């Protein structure tokens, strides 16, 4: 996983996005510095429901399972061992975020339901992981604005896009590579209000609509 961060200091009116203080407070100081980041989380589970189950575990449930795993509890099933390792991964990601403390960041490879209607995984990560200090020297971090994004990954196309004679509707035959709709999706967490009216998407943008482009060759995958 790679974590890229940049500190942007500029005289931009980010205060207009913040919306964190009362409009009657004449002493509001404009925000002139913010940290933006993108993080490949690798939360690409075999199913979206599996990720939801991990994210919805309470802090106590997480700790109990991890302790049993570390103690080599012989009664643990293989599924429970796998879940324990996934919880450790999620906690490590949360710790990195708490250390770097970006104001706005994009969470890559964060599975969703494809249409971004279900918020269970997003809310669970925020409330059950980021809301708890992952290290004695760290503090919890909160993001008031959380945006789930609809995606093409794993979305069935109905066509044999990889030209192998089969229309499987997944992987290379999906509009975006994925074993199910919503795998390898992404989300945005922000401490500033998100301007919903000016969000743009390239989800339905066609290659033929891009100026000065040539028609791509059709290759057969092997």
TrEMBL record:
Extent of the signal sequence: 1-18
Q: Output the Gene Ontology terms for molecular function.
A: catalytic activity
The lineage's top-level taxon is Bacteria
Q: Which UniProt keywords apply?
A: Signal
For the Endonuclease/exonuclease/phosphatase domain, which residue ranges apply?
84-209
Task: Return the protein name.
Answer: Succinyl-CoA synthetase, alpha subunit
User: Which species is this UniProt entry from?
Assistant: Photobacterium marinum
UniProt lineage: Bacteria, Pseudomonadati, Pseudomonadota, Gammaproteobacteria, Vibrionales
